[in-house]
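User: Modeling request: complex.
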Amino acid sequence: MRLEANGLACIRGGREVFSGLGFAVAGGEALLVTGRNGSGKSSLLRLIAGLVRPAGGGLNLDGGNPELTIPEQAHYLGHQDAFKPSLTVVENLGFWSRYLGRAQPAPEALAAVGLAGLADLPAAYLSAGQRRRLSLARLMAVHRPVWLLDEPTSALDDDAQQILVRLMRQHLANDGLIVAATHGPVGLDGTRELRLGAP
Amino acid sequence: MSALLALFWRDVRLAVRTGGGAGIGVLFFLIVVVLMPFAIGPDLALLARIGPAILWLGALLASLLTLDRLLAADHEDGSLDLILMAETPLELAVAAKAAAHWLTTGLPLVVATPLLGLFLNLDGRTGLAVALTLLAGTPALTFIGLIGAALSVTLRRGGLLLAVLVLPLTVPVLIFGVSASNAAIVGPLPFGTPFTILCALTLFSLVIGIFAAAAALRQGME
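Assistant: Request completed. Predicted assembly structure:
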């Protein structure tokens, strides 16, 4: 599996964020997107996720399911958690599992991120870090070969960062690929870096 | 299919939980209808004559109340991003959301109508006739409102714009809804003609609504 970008350009609000961007990530590889605030890290991830239309260039995923688009084969972990405060933890996770195409929500996913004891608590009572852990559980609950992680370590404590590293290693070992926007090291070995220029 | 059912039941569950607003529509409807006799005065014949129109206007305004959160809430917490990315066609996803909205907002209005008709000097049979027209017409209000909700999804205070966008489009539904109700009460027009047109308007808005809303969402997310 291989994700390739050629000559990608992105224009937001009439301002060019980046142009002529090219990279390739193969299965089992993680690409860290770094750069200053406003350099287009999040825009690049949203562009791969199909949420922003590229102003130029294109993306190609070799070796994936040819009947699905790239966004349909990707997990996107953005700044927002996509959880409803009035639903319980397990209802939130169960909904996304079913919506993203898995009949039964995985019970081990909650345990793996340390939220098993809070399954019946409304998500409104979760802290920022716990909500982030719940997002990690979504990555686990449904398999997607491409992970797009936007600052995945934000709000996570040391313990949760260890969980994140373990999840990412597992994903890479299963021939998945990761594109992560980050400011600091994520604790993975052998990652490649894509540095976006300042505007 | 199971994805759509999951989305539908999630929205129904959200609507009936704290802060969901399923009961608010009916309460608002009740208040509008109860206030009318105070404003108009105790002329029973007049109340009975304009009763269906009051019920229809009340239902129209009540169904607008929660429409602005229909898609904006999902946009704010990031759910809409994941819905846009998923394999399930966006048209069907918004249709499932609109169906859940109608079940929790439109249907309670229909159920309350025969009872509220009593406040307006409408007898049981007439109240049921108005409820029948609302049953056929309120889905149109939801699906037309869906377009407005999709257009105003990225705005912080989209509710006002939504009302301005949606209310003019609901005029045909209002006209045929009220004329069908009146036909059932006083005649001389047959009930069937305006009622059939009302049903046609609902089917029409169902098709237009989901495609227009999905197109607006795809454009507007940037």
